[in-house]
Amino acid sequence: MSAPALLVPRTRAGIAERLARSAATVQGVHTVTSQVPDWLVQQRRSVGAVVRRIPFAELDHWSFSPGTGNLGHDSGRFFTIEGLHVTRPEAEWQQPIIVQPEIGILGILAKEFDGVLHFLMQAKMEPGNPNLVQLSPTVQATRSNYTKAHGGMEVQYLEHFLAPRREQVLTDVLQSEHGAWFFQKRNRNMIVEVEEDVPVHDAFCWLTLGQILELLRLDNIVNMDARTVLASAPAVPAETRALSSDADLLAWFTGERTRHDVRARLMPLREIAGWQTGEHAVSRIDERFFRVVAVSVEGAGREVAGWTQPIIEPVERGVVGFAYRLFDGVPHVLAHALVEGGFLDTVELAPTVQCVPSNYAPLPAGDRPRFLDVMLDAPPERVRYSTVHSEEGGRFLNAESRYLIVETDEATTPTQPPPGYHWVTPGQLNWLAAHSRYVNVQARTLLAVLDAALRETTAP
User: Fold this and answer.
1) Helix (H) or strand (E) holding 44
2) Could you identify which of 163, 168, 291, 390 might form a hypothetical disulfide with 281, taking C-beta atoms 3.0 to 4.6 angstroms apart as the criterion?
3) What does the record list as coiled-coil region(s) (predicted)?
């Protein structure tokens, strides 16, 4: 009798193809796509949550440390608001930042129905969402949440993600979050497939990837956590050629990481320069960028029914966009090796433009973000994708950006881009997103829709 094989193939065949088949299926077995927005509205009404701003003095179990001024929870869990000092050769700044060292789980459960992968999505209330309830992963929980530091209920479906068998895992990667607002934050992005029947609890539904892609064309329907998980999944590359080989792209990006000298250190919140702490907000003296405020949440329909917390609120809606061009019939987007103070590895690949335009209005034209006007002034016929998405609603209040994919030309975005920018194909971006800390969370949102948005303009 022969001994069992010790070795397995280095790649699991068929995962990307099965995901592609699900992406091409726009009619699911269980849910009608057009009914999902109304279903989310009904879920919001049934929850009946009320979110209101409160002064810091009304925070329950949260307080400013007498010594550092850092804002934290009495339990020592969840997160803290601390100060950050970032130093670069050409600039330095100080700011508040969220410190949450624990790794959360963003997990989507998958199951085949009629030979097509469907994904179990949740209608989840987050206090910072403009419309409160959006489509989220099956599980979206920090370690403090799923270990019940709040004393609340169990996280539904969590058992599928804590110790899955390796043959069940379709994707599993640690990804960063917003480097401008989080200090070295990471979440575990997972898709886990099950064969057995699982109960569909209230506020959950099965959708194909094609249905989710349709919903990603609507404003504020699919939340950030669902977008990043889907972007981390393997895709079948539509192209075999590119302006740069994969090896050249990786060498360029490694060079970008080494050429930037960025030093970021935490500091007491009370000592940061250019900011002021008032009764209702920690804000910049010039009122730019963002502020730290406090909210009370009642009737949430979550693991606990109500709570108070600090939350970050940007001053205005942002603009996030990829410039897109065809080179010899192959689609490319212009990625930016962007420095953000909270990144663990100096830079990550970001969209061509990622900013809040009003923050730069007082500055001379030469100091405005490069290519911003290409996005703002794009004629309608060149806009391949335009949708408003909100960022993570558990930590950010009304943090929205208009996400764009804009067709450009040699005059606006040259074949040889300026330093810090590089043309990459959707396949190359997906390849990098399968690894930790290569593609930032904003670029992953656009990666989730990139193939579908560009399909009609791609040459065979």
Assistant:
1) helix 36-47
2) 291
3) none
List, as one string, the DSSP characters of 100-164: --SPEEEEEEEEEETTEEEEEEEEEE-TTSTTSEEEE-SEEE-HHHHTTTTS-PPPTTTHHHHS-
Rounded Cα–Cα distance for residues 445 and 247 (Å):
25
426-433 helix and 441-454 helix, angle to the nearest 10 degrees: 140
CB-hemisphere CA count at 13 Å for 19?
22
Residue-level pLDDT at 166? 85
Q: What domain range includes position 401?
A: 246-263+316-457
Per the CB < 8 A criterion, the answer to whether 353 and 346 are in contact is no
25 inside domain: yes
CA 36 to chain centre: 21
Q: What are phi and psi of 383, to 5 degrees?
A: -85, 110
- Assess contact for 406 and 380: CB atoms under 8 A: no
pLDDT tens track for 170-202: 999 999 999 999 999 999 999 999 999 999 998
How confident is the model over 65-111, as pLDDT tens digits?
A: 999 999 999 999 889 999 999 999 988 999 999 999 889 999 999 99
Q: Which residues contact 351 (CB under 8 A, 6 or more apart)?
A: 320, 321, 322, 333, 335, 336, 442, 443, 446
**Domain count along the chain:** 2
**Residue 457 to residue 75: CA distance in whole angstroms:** 53
Residues 174 and 209 in one domain: yes
**Do residues 427 and 331 both lie within one domain?**
yes
CATH code for the domain of 206: 3.90.79.40
Same domain, 333 and 195: no
| pLDDT, tens only, 365-383 | 777 899 999 999 999 999 9
Return d(Cα 88, Cα 261) in angstroms, integer. 6
Residue 268 in domain: no
Whether residue 196 is found in the same domain as residue 324: no
Alpha carbon of 444 to those of 6, 37, 58, 139: distances in Å? 36, 23, 37, 19
Same domain assignment for residues 258 and 139: no
pLDDT averaged over every residue in the chain? 91
Q: Is residue 240 situated within a structural domain?
A: no
